[in-house]
Amino acid sequence: MRTARAFPLDEHTYWNIVARSLVNATDQQSQLVNLVSILQEYSTDAICQFDLRTEELLFKAHTDNLWCAATIMNKRFVSDDNFMNFKTWLISRGKDVYYDALSKPDSLTKEVKTKGELYGFEEFRYAPEYAFKLKTGVEFPFGYPKDFPYSQNKYPQLEFAWQTGNRNDMRSICPQLFDLMYKKKRLIAPVKKTQKKRK
């Protein structure tokens, strides 16, 4: 028989928690502190369900267009781990930012900061682990429920329509974001290196 931990937290509650974590948060560390504190208000099952909902949202954001956006915003090669951190950052910005970016990555122009920074938030993913340990005194029960469809080993293999380092390609995917980050309207000659497929 499946327990409550086998299902992701309902989206309304999930996004409400994320929104609350952003209140009075001045940086990622303060948002993380808020999030861990808020999660401790919930049952241990709900904390685990929060983690599963995060995994589902990470899975749904695993697209080549968002990988391109991550590369543009961070102005560097984005590895698998870097992209995971970018997707986690995207979730941490709230429901509207997340879903707008899924449908139109160029919407992330609204999230660009005036000061240079890397767009990633690895520790957001660890908040359920921290909250669970603080609430119970025991370690977080890692692992996916049986037949969970959004586990990381089930990520689709992406076919990229762009090449890392080819600004022509990247601008064709996210023109507004590219122009904002690079402050240029015209491009650099394409590189010959072939983009490797991601898993």
From TrEMBL:
Residues 10-133 form the DUF4240 domain. Pfam families: DUF4240. It comes from the Bacteria. This is DUF4240 domain-containing protein.
